Amino acid sequence: MKTVEGSLADCTDDRLIRAIVDGDEAAFAELYRRYKTPLYNYLLRLVHEREVAEETLQDVFVAAWEGAVRFRGEAKVSTWLFRIAHHQAVDWLRKRRPALLEKVEWLVAEDCPEEEAFRRCQVDQLCAAIDELSADHRAVLELTFLRGLSYREVALVVGCPVGTVKSRISYAKRHLNGVLKRMELD
After folding, report:
1. Disulfide: which of 5, 68, 131, 149 matches 20 by Cβ 3.0-4.6 Å?
2. pLDDT digits (tens, 9 = 90+) for 16-64
3. Model confidence over 91-148: pLDDT tens digits?
4. Residues 6+ apart with CB under 8 A from 130
């Protein structure tokens, strides 16, 4: 097997993909190391079940290993991986669970139990509001605001035009704003 010269940690994602095409398992292990956590977190927020997220993550990387030869480099490797993850999760959602609650991690003041309780209540209300969104709307919010992808990259991941991404984000924000106002949250 051909090995990537130099340290794998210093290789670009594109070089790792080329090495994976040549059957380099160490390059694949490096790609897995780089993306397992963000992909797992994204999947978990979409499917809301740890076991499903773990199984789906493995499916994503199997698909990446098998599909590396078809990677054309038209998008970043991270966008390509998130697209695979998105499609895997959406397939599961269509088959198994139509509406799932997103979990939001919230930083709380450890030295103030009253403030922590208040913030946890706010998080619960925000989660309830997010739960009212479709998986498509949750996905574009996650990819844009938590993962920092551009609208173009989000469009590539979810497989729709940029205009649709913009409208989904706009709808999701308006919907969340209305729900939070009704709950009297800022």
Report:
1. 68
2. 999 999 999 999 999 999 999 999 998 988 888 899 999 999 999 999 9
3. 887 776 433 333 333 333 445 556 656 666 666 677 777 777 788 888 888 888 777 8
4. 101, 102, 104, 138, 141, 176
As a CATH number, domain 1-99 is 1.10.1740.10
Rounded Cα–Cα distance for residues 71 and 42 (Å) = 21
Distances in whole angstroms, Cα of residue 53 to Cα of each of 27, 134, 163: 23, 18, 29
Q: Domain-by-domain residue ranges, the chain?
A: 1-99, 101-186
Task: State if pTM tops 0.85.
Answer: no
Token pair for 97:
């669970």
CB atoms inside a 10 Å sphere around CB 171: 15
